[in-house]
Design brief:
Elements lengths: L4 E5 L3 E4 L7 H9 L4 E4 L10 H12 L9 E7 L6 H9 L3 E6 L19 H10 L3 E3 L13 H16 L5 E3 L5 H9 L4 E5 L1 H5 L2 H5 L16 H11 L6 E3 L8 H4 L14 H11 L6 H13 L7 E5 L3 E2 L4 E3 L2 E3 L7 E2 L2 E5 L1
Parallel strand pairs: 2-3, 3-4, 4-5, 5-6, 6-7, 7-8, 8-9
Antiparallel strand pairs: 1-10, 10-15, 11-14, 12-13
Helix pairs in contact: 3-4
Length: 348
């Protein structure tokens, strides 16, 4: 491997939004170009709340995988007040379902069906802890009086810490962390607590969103934070700790739902996700740590065999289009009209 090439075990994406319907024609080819597997988020309309719905959604995804590619969607269920221990058991027994997703009600896109009071779903969570089925958490409170830049920290203090104390064996992935406090919390916990890190939270801070005018395509939840928090995230990602692994949270929205008076939260990064991470790790002089973060630690946490295929990146600029087709509309990708310094050369 030279300084101009990087050969890795093929990675997985442990937090991905593929959407549904005709938009799968764009999102599935983009993700399957890079990743062997992906944890697929269930926040559709209506949400994926049963094993039966998850399996049907899985088939819709599979039907859009380009010929000759190997890509496995790892399905999740949406935690609602109605999820019972019996459905959790069915999810555990069904090999295609790998986790349950907890959205606080109103926390982000299509989270209206989320849980308002965790106590309501303690029986389901208790069964998850018993079975070792991970709970994936969007870690923000939704109280109107809490500043949006503080909602992750307050969630950790008021919700997550008590939850881990009540269910000490529960496997938890705190997804798309954005603060030093989240890094410190995950580091303070046992091996059953991990976190995913996105390319946009590692590359951008709130100045990128707000300075010089609001950039709607950089609006995401959790919202971009101070540069000091971004530095803490980069340190965690490049540390070599198995508690932190790749999860893009690639979340596409049609252009008209982003460039509007009340735009949707989400950044689309699947078109160049691994290339973004390579940039990040190179800038931190930590390219030797990328394979563990991207290819090993997530699989180990989920107790899934590591991939055997290899992927090669080269130090050749990748030009990002200004837009991609997205159903009957378009989606503006991260770094639209610009370049990424790495590109995928081959997958074998």
């Amino acid at each position: 491997m030279s300084s101009k090439t990087l050969r890795l075990t093929q990675p997985d994406d442990w937090h991905l939004h593929l959407r549904d319907g005709e938009t799968l024609s764009t999102t599935v080819p983009h993700s399957s170009r890079t990743f062997a597997r992906a944890i697929v988020m269930p926040n559709l309309k209506p949400p994926v709340t049963t094993v039966e719905q998850a399996l049907a959604y899985r088939q819709r995804i599979i039907s859009h995988i380009p010929k000759g590619r190997s890509f496995e969607p790892l399905m999740t269920l949406y935690l609602t007040d109605k999820l019972d221990a019996e459905e959790v058991q069915r999810a555990y027994d069904e090999q295609c379902v790998h986790a349950i997703k907890f959205y606080p009600a109103g926390a982000t896109t299509n989270s209206e069906s989320g849980v308002a009071e965790l106590e309501c779903v303690y029986p389901a969570i208790e069964k998850m802890a018993e079975l070792g089925l991970p709970l994936l958490i969007h870690g923000e409170v939704t109280d109107d009086h809490i500043d949006i830049f503080d909602r992750e920290r307050v969630f950790i203090d008021n919700v997550l810490s008590p939850l881990t104390q009540k269910f000490p064996k529960l496997k938890i992935v705190l997804e798309h962390i954005t603060t030093k406090e989240a890094v410190d919390f995950v580091n303070s916990q046992g091996d059953n607590i991990a976190a995913t890190l996105t390319p946009h939270h590692l590359l951008l801070d709130r100045n990128d969103l707000l300075a010089g005018g609001v950039k709607p395509h950089y609006y995401c939840l959790p919202i971009l934070k101070r540069s000091s928090h971004r530095s803490a995230l980069i340190e965690a990602a490049t540390s070599g700790s198995p508690k932190f692994f790749l999860g893009t949270d690639s979340a596409p929205h049609a252009i008209e739902t982003k460039e509007t008076s009340c735009g949707c939260a989400g950044i689309y990064s699947a078109h160049a996700a691994l290339e973004f991470y390579a940039e990040i790790f190179e800038a931190a002089n930590a390219l030797d740590k990328l394979e563990g973060f991207a290819s090993f630690f997530g699989a180990d946490f989920y107790k899934i065999p590591r991939n055997s295929a290899k992927i090669t990146l080269s130090k050749n600029p990748l030009s990002v289009p200004a837009e991609y087709i997205f159903g009957d509309s378009t989606v503006i990708p991260m770094r639209a009209g610009e370049t990424v310094s790495w590109s995928i050369e081959e997958t074998t």
